Amino acid sequence: MVLSLVAKKPSYGYEIIKDIQEASSGLYVPSPGVIYPTLTLLEEQGFLESQIVERNRKSFSITPEGAEHLAQNKETEAVIVRKLAKARDLQHGGNLAEDIETAVNRFKALLRHKMVLKQLNEEQTRQIASIINDAVKQIEEVNALLTDNDDE
Which residues form the signal peptide (predicted)? Predict the structure, then answer.
């Protein structure tokens, strides 16, 4: 997937993270700890090359060897693209249970993106915890209403 994205346009690591997040409609957000080692590996294998550009950021582009490797693995790329399309479809029109599952998966992906969480100050941390606790309370209230209706 990373090789495929870079083949479309030279990219920075964070651009690739955002492209994957967008392609999966937010269901999967790879962490920098996944993307940067992958970029390094692809570069060491000769599939990508990098150059330092603005503000000392590395921009990656595909090499002829990388393009050949991508061409040889079109089936794998097609499977990934189909799975991402299915994720988008679920995100934008699944049944109600799938809507909840999708929301939970997006929430988990956000929490796994530890770099974002590490950058929070104390007030932001408290605010997010409050939002989460409020959401849990609201879900419990909805569940209590459903449980009361079942008893009738």
Answer: none
pTM of the model: 0.58
- What do you get for the CA distance between the two ends of the chain, in Å? 52
Q: Count of CB atoms within 10 A of residue 17's CB? A: 21
CATH of the domain spanning 1-92: 1.10.10.10
Q: CA torsion angle for 39, 42, 45, 50 (degrees, to 10)? A: -60
Taken as a whole, the chain contains a residue count of 152
Residue 92 — pLDDT band, cuts 50, 70, 90?
A: low
Q: Residue ranges per domain, the chain?
A: 1-92, 96-148
pLDDT by residue (tens digit) across 32-87?
999 999 999 999 999 999 999 877 889 999 999 999 999 999 988 888 888 877 77
**49 in helix, strand or coil?**
strand
